[in-house]
Write a sequence for this structure.
């Protein structure tokens, strides 16, 4: 498990140098419109979705280690080429290639995490999420200073991180024996399917994850431009993500301890997250100065801490053994779809209405889909989160 966590830390640190600047880089450095930037983010997410599905299929059917190494190698090669070719449209193409590899590798790694039998799945995913956000803190703290040296340095450091991760994968990431046994049994035609009631709840949860990321993607795209229009500098925008990571790093261990002491129900954490996301998104209507954005980010981050590591654990608890990879792939794909649709949809709403209309829509969307999930849980699961007979 410690190599899994170290890999998550390294990947997150490298990625956090790049993704907060993607929209700004295309808009301010490459002089592309917000529509073009949103379209690139859309195709980024689509390739991530395809990669996630493929990663899940690979995990359920074999040759896991070979394709994991190949996908990480693809990511490392993409970022290496960005060092030399980061003009338009090479930047967009290589970014999309990187995301395709990321979809495969992140799904396989998440699926491997479900195979750790020594720890409760919620603890495993909480710790992975914790380490990812330690990386977010480190990466977003560095990005404002690294970019002042040169934009090229962002790509160099990112490549170095991927190279280290590739070495860790090569040396330490192996498929558990019980998963290899599953592949052998599947070749003989032996397989178990996820019950229909469980699948209904899973897809309702994934729909909520999608709705949340439609709103959350605004922070990573359109909000950077909105804050710039209000006279807030890029360094302050980047600092918001540092604040986001710090809150997660401080709060996540407390939630882990609370979970261990009181065995918190996964559904209750998701329900509270719905309230926090709805409130956080709607609070942006009144954000006109930097402290208001900090407050909104803090509220949204609390919702993130409760729900983002809970979704994969919740889905894992309901999915059958032979379909772990499939559903972990969907856990990666659905929020990616939200990040694909979000920037484009946000741009359309802003262009035709206003930023306030965008924030109202994202809040209402989360409330509606969250209500559907609650209904599905009540109909199909009992008080212990087990499938009703």
């Amino acid at each position: 498990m410690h190599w899994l966590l170290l890999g998550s830390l390294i990947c997150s640190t490298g990625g956090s140098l790049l993704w907060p600047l993607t929209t700004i880089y295309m808009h301010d450095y490459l002089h592309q419109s917000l529509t073009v930037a949103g379209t690139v983010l859309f195709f980024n997410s689509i390739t991530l979705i395809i990669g996630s599905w493929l990663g899940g299929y690979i995990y359920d059917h074999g040759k896991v280690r070979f394709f994991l190494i190949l996908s990480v190698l693809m990511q490392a090669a993409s970022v290496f080429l960005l060092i030399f070719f980061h003009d338009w449209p090479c930047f967009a193409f290589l970014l999309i290639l990187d995301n395709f590899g990321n979809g495969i590798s992140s799904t396989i790694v998440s699926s491997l995490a479900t195979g750790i039998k020594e720890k409760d799945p919620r603890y495993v995913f909480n710790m992975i999420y914790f380490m990812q956000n330690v990386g977010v803190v480190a990466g977003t703290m560095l990005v404002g200073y690294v970019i002042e040296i040169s934009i090229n340095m962002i790509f160099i450091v990112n490549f170095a991180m991927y190279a280290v991760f590739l070495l860790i994968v090569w040396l330490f990431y192996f498929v558990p024996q019980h998963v290899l046994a599953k592949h052998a049994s599947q070749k003989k035609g032996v397989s178990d399917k996820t019950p229909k009631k469980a699948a209904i709840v899973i897809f309702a949860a994934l729909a909520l994850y999608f709705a949340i990321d439609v709103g959350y993607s605004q922070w990573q795209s359109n909000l950077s431009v909105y804050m710039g229009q209000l006279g807030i500098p890029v360094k302050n925008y980047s600092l918001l993500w540092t604040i986001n990571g710090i809150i997660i790093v401080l709060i996540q261990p407390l939630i882990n301890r609370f979970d261990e002491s009181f065995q918190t129900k996964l559904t209750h954490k998701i329900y509270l997250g719905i309230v926090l996301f709805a409130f956080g998104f709607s609070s942006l209507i009144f954000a006109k100065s930097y402290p208001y954005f900090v407050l909104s980010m803090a509220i949204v981050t609390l919702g993130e801490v409760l729900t983002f590591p809970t979704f994969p654990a919740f889905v894992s608890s309901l999915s059958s053994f032979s379909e772990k990879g499939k559903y972990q792939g969907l856990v990666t794909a659905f929020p990616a779809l939200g990040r694909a649709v979000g920037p484009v949809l946000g741009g359309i709403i802003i262009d035709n209405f206003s930023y306030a209309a965008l924030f109202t829509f994202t809040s209402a969307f989360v409330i509606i889909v969250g209500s559907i999930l609650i209904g599905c849980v009540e109909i199909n699961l009992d008080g212990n989160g087990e499938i009703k007979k």
In short: The first helix runs from residue 2 to 15. The chain has one domain: 2-380.
